[in-house]
Amino acid sequence: MKSHVRTLQIAFTYIGTIVGAGFATGQEILRFFTRYGHWAVLTILFSTVLFIWLGTKMMIIARRVQAESYEDFNRHLFGERAGRSISLFTMIILIGVNSIMLAGAGAIFQEHLGMPYQAGLLLTILGSYLLLKRGISGILQINSLVVPLMLTLSLIIIFNTLGVPGAERFLFLPTDHSFFGAWMSPLLYTAFNLGMAQAVLVPLARHTNDEQALLRGGILGGIGIGFLLLAAHFAMSSQMPGILQYEIPMGTIAIRLGPVVQSIYLLLIFMEIFSTFVADIYGVSVQLQQRLPVAPVLVTPLLMLICYVFSQFGFSSLLSIFYPIFGAVSLVWVIMLLRAPMSPPPADPPGMDGKGITIVAVKPVIRITRK
């Protein structure tokens, strides 16, 4: 039973780490898949296979090489010098993304809840700090709450879309984009998201003793990501091409389902922002603890302070420069992951039988009595 629970926790965390706010709003799916029309279903299936294969492989290798952080993992893939450089660049991108996540949380409080923008930022930071005190278990718990809610909402959206005229259009949508662009898009999408997700998936794997749970969790997580991609694509295809004009495409789908579902969707977007923020902060904190001569208890508050400062000014212009570069680096990273051999499982500690069971040797006691 414990193994099955751990499998679900890993799967939910994998899904929640990939499915960030850009996914929840629908923009990522629209940009990487739906706009490619009739190719989208096949490219989503291709991306799903990559998520199952590469995500699982990354976690198993991370466990076998005992990688404490994604920097350890990158040093294993690229070597000492290149691995440190790639990890440093990844950290900069993650801090930028976290700053935008924090700004998005503030905007939700301001625009939809009628609360001050700064209150949204501070409440998000406080909640994240309290959750991060629980370590990796806190990340598992928040995703075990958010992801089932997201899967349930996706099912509601699918059943509602079935009754909409043009629901079958997801199979026949025309597109002006090239065949090459359509098939490069899922590769770039998978590479970018796995490159970001390594911040939490690597330490998660390191703290998982059961390799079979990692294997099953990676497979279930990849399938779940594929299901969510297909559900959103199915719903948005029925509204093409008009849905292209909206900043939050999935928001228009939620509005059609009534005020209750719309409120749940709004809560879901915030929870996705919150869970992604928590996971990324945790991953970067683990790396910074290896790099900085600072007490570990100070690293997380310092990192949150940096994100808070950047969230005041916006970070979109800087990320517009970094994102294409990081996309290219992620593609190289995925190629190295594809080529990486599977390391042998780590040796069990003395006194373990390979299944986590302690072996106790009992010596016979011979008592000699003298008459």
Automatic annotation (TrEMBL):
Keywords, comma-separated and alphabetical: Membrane, Transmembrane, Transmembrane helix
InterPro entries: YkvI-like
Keyword Chloroplast in record: no
The keyword Oxidoreductase is assigned to this record: no
Transmembrane segments: 12-30, 36-54, 86-109, 115-132, 144-167, 187-205, 217-236, 264-282, 294-315, 321-338
Top-level taxon of origin: Bacteria
PANTHER family: CONSERVED MEMBRANE PROTEIN (PTHR37814), MEMBRANE PROTEIN (PTHR37814:SF1)
Protein known as: Transporter
UniProt source species: Paenibacillus riograndensis
